[in-house]
Specification:
The protein is α/β, with parallel strands linked by helices. It has nine helices and eight strands. A hairpin with a 5-residue loop joins strand 3 and strand 4. Helix 2 crosses helix 4 and helix 7 packs across helix 8.
Length: 229
């Protein structure tokens, strides 16, 4: 008998295309897409907007009771992030906020604060959730786990294109350096480091086009879900 709700966990390094591919898969499979990275970015944005360094664990934790964080889905079907009533969906994609997100994500009280939010979404919807520790910590019992990755060089190229399209271009050398630094931070942080879950399927998109990657991800999810039914 079919479970009431299915959960798909997609983990991987920064710039691997998790958000874009997870969003496309959710659209095609009629699942709710949850961009957990945007949640951490929102907290980083709030800290920075409050003149609190994202790496200052104690002061960031003190901000949490003052934070009204909401996920909403507009008519465009996209996830929007509201911080104390303000839509910060565009602002949280700035490079400096991206760097701050990795720092706040290493704070235990921040992760505890968000864990209940993430799990509650999975308990009430068929979800595709992406992040760094979804399959290992947030949804360890997910029906399907995928570790999505690509080489640092390919990820940097994709990130440069994305930044240029947003009107905030950076050099390839700068983006590659920052990406490698973030990879190291995510792998070595004490709390919920980035790692592939033992039962996660590996999908390397380094040599794939977007559509090829999307089809490969959708195929992996369908195979796992069909096996469960």
């Amino acid at each position: 008998m079919r479970k009431r709700f299915y959960a798909v966990a997609i983990d991987g390094p920064s710039g691997a295309g998790k958000s874009t591919l997870a969003k496309k898969a959710a659209e095609r499979l009629h699942f709710l897409y949850v961009d957990t990275g945007a949640i951490y970015r929102s907290i980083a944005w709030y800290a920075m907007d409050s003149a609190v360094p994202p790496e200052d664990a104690e002061r960031v934790a003190e901000l949490l009771p003052l934070l009204d964080l909401q996920l909403c889905y507009g008519e465009d079907g996209l996830q929007h992030m509201l911080v104390n009533g303000r839509d910060v969906t565009a602002e949280i994609r700035l490079p400096e906020v991206s760097a701050g997100a990795s720092k706040v994500a290493a704070i235990p009280r921040v992760r505890e604060y968000l864990l209940a939010i993430q799990r509650q979404l999975a308990e009430t919807h068929d979800v595709i959730m992406d992040g760094r520790d979804i399959g290992t910590v947030v949804l360890p019992q997910a029906d399907c786990k995928v570790f999505l990755t690509a080489s640092a060089e390919v990820r940097a190229q994709r990130r440069c294109k994305e930044l240029e399209e947003r009107g905030t271009p950076q050099t390839y050398e700068t983006v590659l350096k920052e990406m490698r630094q973030r990879d190291e931070q995510d792998r070595t942080r004490v709390v919920a480091p980035l790692r592939r879950a033992g039962d996660a399927l590996l999908l390397d998109t380094s040599l794939l086009t977007f559509e090829e990657s999307a089809q490969a991800l959708e195929r992996l999810i369908k195979e796992k879900i069909d096996h469960e039914t």
